[in-house]
Amino acid sequence: MIEKKFLKSKPICKVKFSLPKSQVQAAKTVTVVGDFNNWDISATPLKKQKTGNFAATIDLDIHKEYQFRYVLDGKEWINDEEADRFVPANIGSEQNGLLSI
């Protein structure tokens, strides 16, 4: 799930990335990677919630598009079905989610 909250005082959007327990299965770690953190799998970890879901909120500049994916346990890459759209990842037939802010 993706939630966008645009700030009135700054050209920033607070974006909350979250994955339900059912989608992460038995993963112990979940991170979100993308253009905004140079695809660094350790830069933006999602925190496990009491419900078993994982979530993190980051600030992104408005009027931009960002490619992103989630990484489970440092090795399994998955997409968020709620991405604004999908674009080729230039790795085989893989696709990245795209956020329009």
UniProtKB/TrEMBL annotation:
<feature type="domain" description="Glycoside hydrolase family 13 N-terminal">
    <location>
        <begin position="26"/>
        <end position="72"/>
    </location>
</feature>
<dbReference type="InterPro" id="IPR014756">
    <property type="entry name" value="Ig_E-set"/>
</dbReference>
<protein>
    <submittedName>
        <fullName>Isoamylase early set domain-containing protein</fullName>
    </submittedName>
</protein>
<dbReference type="InterPro" id="IPR004193">
    <property type="entry name" value="Glyco_hydro_13_N"/>
</dbReference>
<dbReference type="InterPro" id="IPR013783">
    <property type="entry name" value="Ig-like_fold"/>
</dbReference>
<dbReference type="Pfam" id="PF02922">
    <property type="entry name" value="CBM_48"/>
</dbReference>
